[in-house]
Amino acid sequence: MMKIKLEFSGGMELLFGGITHQEIEFPEQYEGAPAKLENLVFWIKDNLLKEKEELFLQDNTVRPGILVLINDSDWELEDGAEYQLANNDTITFISTLHGG
């Protein structure tokens, strides 16, 4: 198992029962292959998400308008959902969507 730090902000914490930071243990292997960020996203949906799945996921990925950071770097620079997780990674989800 590896330790992964999760952070939720910009309104994302409201979907997760007010949680802003959480450390979890996540398997290094997922279905026989090294664990990817995509696996973690679905684990978060199944284990931590409290409401409104459609505000977190769209078309089997993180909804547009949610900034995902891997160790403070945009996930687009780190292979996105295909990023291979490592022990002590910090994954941050920040909503950039605001009603008006």
From TrEMBL:
<keyword id="KW-0963">Cytoplasm</keyword>
<dbReference type="GO" id="GO:0005829">
    <property type="term" value="C:cytosol"/>
</dbReference>
<dbReference type="GO" id="GO:0002098">
    <property type="term" value="P:tRNA wobble uridine modification"/>
</dbReference>
<feature type="cross-link" description="Glycyl lysine isopeptide (Gly-Lys) (interchain with K-? in acceptor proteins)">
    <location>
        <position position="100"/>
    </location>
</feature>
<comment type="pathway">
    <text>tRNA modification; 5-methoxycarbonylmethyl-2-thiouridine-tRNA biosynthesis.</text>
</comment>
<dbReference type="GO" id="GO:0034227">
    <property type="term" value="P:tRNA thio-modification"/>
</dbReference>
<protein>
    <recommendedName>
        <fullName>Ubiquitin-related modifier 1</fullName>
    </recommendedName>
</protein>
<comment type="function">
    <text>Acts as a sulfur carrier required for 2-thiolation of mcm(5)S(2)U at tRNA wobble positions of cytosolic tRNA(Lys), tRNA(Glu) and tRNA(Gln). Serves as sulfur donor in tRNA 2-thiolation reaction by being thiocarboxylated (-COSH) at its C-terminus by the MOCS3 homolog UBA4. The sulfur is then transferred to tRNA to form 2-thiolation of mcm(5)S(2)U. Prior mcm(5) tRNA modification by the elongator complex is required for 2-thiolation. Also acts as a ubiquitin-like protein (UBL) that is covalently conjugated via an isopeptide bond to lysine residues of target proteins such as AHP1.</text>
</comment>
<feature type="modified residue" description="1-thioglycine">
    <location>
        <position position="100"/>
    </location>
</feature>
<keyword id="KW-0833">Ubl conjugation pathway</keyword>
<dbReference type="GO" id="GO:0032447">
    <property type="term" value="P:protein urmylation"/>
</dbReference>
<keyword id="KW-1017">Isopeptide bond</keyword>
<dbReference type="InterPro" id="IPR015221">
    <property type="entry name" value="Urm1"/>
</dbReference>
<keyword id="KW-0819">tRNA processing</keyword>
<comment type="similarity">
    <text>Belongs to the URM1 family.</text>
</comment>
<dbReference type="InterPro" id="IPR016155">
    <property type="entry name" value="Mopterin_synth/thiamin_S_b"/>
</dbReference>
<dbReference type="Pfam" id="PF09138">
    <property type="entry name" value="Urm1"/>
</dbReference>
<dbReference type="InterPro" id="IPR012675">
    <property type="entry name" value="Beta-grasp_dom_sf"/>
</dbReference>
